[in-house]
Fold this sequence. Notes:
Layout: E1 5-11, H1 15-29, E2 35-41, H2 45-48, H3 54-57, H4 65-72, E3 78-82, E4 94-98, E5 107-110, E6 122-124, H5 128-137, E7 142-144, H6 150-155, E8 162-166, H7 167-172, E9 179-182, E10 197-202, H8 206-213, H9 218-234, E11 242-249, E12 252-260, E13 266-273, H10 276-288
Helix pairs in contact: 9-10
Amino acid sequence: MTEPRRLRVASRGSPLALWQANHVAGALRATGSELTVEVLVISTEGDRRHDVPLAEMGGKGVFVKEVQAAVLEGRADLAVHSAKDLPAITPNGLVLACVPERADASDALVGRALVDVPEGGTIATGSSRRAMQLVALRPDVKVVGLRGNMDTRLAKAKDHDAVVVATAALVRLGHTDQIAQVFGVDEMVPQVGQGALAIECRSDDVELLAMLASIEHGASRRCVDAERAFLCELGGDCDLPAGAHGVVTPAGLRLRAVLAGARGAIRRFDELGDDGGALGKAAARRLRG
Length: 289
């Protein structure tokens, strides 16, 4: 009798990251494959250094490099990431093997709705993308920095008029009761990959690649690939004041994108196309000007 394959899933140790890793583990078990799946918790630089802005540490890679290394070195078989944390370039030896069905990609306010923030009030976020769009919506508010996992961010809400977090994270952790406002993706364009999970494995693991293909969601993958093409063409990272969001429509893939100009003015892109990669690159070239 063939022994079940043992899969080791590399993940950050935050409650949200563990929810994501266990969600993927459950999806793999549900395929009917003979598997045993365990989660390997990896400490990342981004998790250890909450007091340092991401831009000073090198951007979003600080949340994934150690997790990717665990897979490359054979300590784990696959890595589960928040797609928004994944740099635009995949390291040699790894492949972005799977994007399961995406959750809500929007941003949300905790504390109070934007209309209820007093004039000159403070809104906390660690994202330059969110900050530029908040100021466009409410030029009078003061945007201040925010770091830490979701529990830390929610705890800090009492120190400000509101904090901005990803809607999907609040839903996954059971904190929907704390949502004061959900922004439409037309008024606050999300981060590239927000709401989606990205699963990496070694590029030569043919058996695992086939397993992961069975839990991929085609429309979600198409959108995330277009958004990542936008980021890659910009040569950017999560400290760049840019965002993109794709959605598959009957007429084709619609991509919205934003980028702050040299004087802070927001440049916008909103077009349909059939080739998501080409659309993402076109958005970057247009907005970069």
